[in-house]
Amino acid sequence: MKWLKINTVLLVAVLSFWMPLSKADTQFRVIVDASGSMLISDPDKLTSEALRLISNLAPEEKATLGIWLFGEEPRVLLPEAIVNKANKTKLASYVDSYVTQDVKTDLEAIIKLLLETPDSGNLKSGFNRHWILVTDGMVDISLDEAVNKASRDRILNELTAKLEERGIHLHTISMTGYTDKALLESLSLRTDATHTEVAIPEDLLDTFDRIFTQASPSDELPFDGNRFSVDDAIKELTLVVFHETGMQPHIVKPDGKSLSLVSSAEVSVSSSDHYTLITVRDPASGTWQVNNVDLERSSIRVITDLSAQATPVAPVIFQNEPIYSTVGLFQKNELIKDDKVLDLLDVKQTLVRLSGEQKETVFSQDTLRTNEQFKQRLEGITEPGNYELISLVDGKTFSRQISQFFAVHPAIDFEGTSPGGNLVQFSAKPVNLRLNMLRSNVKLEFTYNSGTTETEDMPLAGQGYWEKLIPVSPGDNVNVRAKLIGMTQTGQRFDYWTPMWHFDRQGNSAPTVTLLDGDVNNSSNMSEASSNNDVAPVFVPPSVSVVDDVAETSDPVPEENTKTDESVTDQMLDKANNLSTSEWILYVALNLGGIIVIAGGVFLYRRIKKNQSLRREDLDDV
Q: Quick check: 393 and 400 in contact, CB under 8 A?
């Protein structure tokens, strides 16, 4: 008995020692505008609900969360810590009582503070950093606009560079149309994150939900109307359902009984005014039913050994950049290769453009099976905005769904200015480090009044962008646009035409340069909403073509860090570009050696043929 007690004590001590070694793989830091105008932009404090939502979505002990407020000066609302039950309770008590009454908004100070704040919460090596900024205003630290501009410039240049260096994804959310969209969008694009303009405060919840899904993807179950099917392989499911204030979800189990929305050993419930999270452990197999919720906005996340995995989509995709998508079915992280199982699978992909409350389906199509995987190539997404790629795997007796969120944006910002004298200057700056500038180039196309067109290369400046100075003669009247022949860091080639600019010069006056309204190549394809509330707006989908002849490969879908498919040509180019001096010498020597061997072989072959010919002549003579 004494021996048993000693071993029990030792076991407890060992467990106590090892438990703290459980490490989180994702860091969430949320920055909330505390200016007085937020009382108008968010009167029902939906921001507080969104903060609780991301806390409830995060798996315990697997993520850290910290919340900061900014206004006249930055301050901590909730110190960063590991997400667990105690911290969730602390968060719930904090977020409902914070005050938004600051007069100014010092965005520079809060970003600088967070960059200087050490990580905490027992994070593992190589963890993902996802920061979320919610604001309804501009950079406003002084009545002097020059001071505000200087602060804005420091954010765009110095601080954004530091965010990029540390691999921080800064998601930005505009609560009104009065925010500095150019600044916020640049912060997100450069840090591989999404920028969202919230039309109504309730959309803030959906935005936080999408950001979490992007940061921490998981298997989902699809809704079939208000029903969904649970199979034997599902160990746990979490319903994330949105509903009207005061409405309680009604969940019906396969046996026809209602699920009790009271936390217990089998069920965990976290409710708020506009959403409810319901986690069910070891759920019963069969058909479940959900009532009193907004099904369009709701989702079902599951933990299972039978999972679908897809090629990761970059958070920011460039206009006209192809997307290669591969979907595989895994059993305990092993790719299923059994034809009896794969022959039963149907994999359909749907691309949806997210525009406020509107969701427009761009396309929906079955994928092609190639060996053990299902593949598709999407070409030519031309409409900028936020998108969702939904992959639905139907196995007849089970189904899985993968939701992938990303933003589409031009790869370069093309701009014209008049620096003085008789000159105009055009620059093309990359919006994101995914663009491989050394393998991309920009050409300027000039169209003159006479109708003639000329093309010139745009030089790559040492500062990391393309730039060209153009002298303008009196009477010149020219339209100009740029063509980017782009290459991503993963070797994907794409073309992009910028909007058209115009410059001219009247007499000896300074030249003027302006952006023309028309954009023939990259114009918006979405019609304006009707002013009649009884008539739904008509949407014309962006031009996207689905290419079926995807190159075959027998490689399984990697679990993490899956790279976009590259052509053999691009792979060889990458290898050639990365050769060192010694490797080049060896490469040249080997090639010369190969040429000598081939030449010797040809010489030997001809000598043998000549000897054979002489023998035949000798035989003929005999």
A: yes
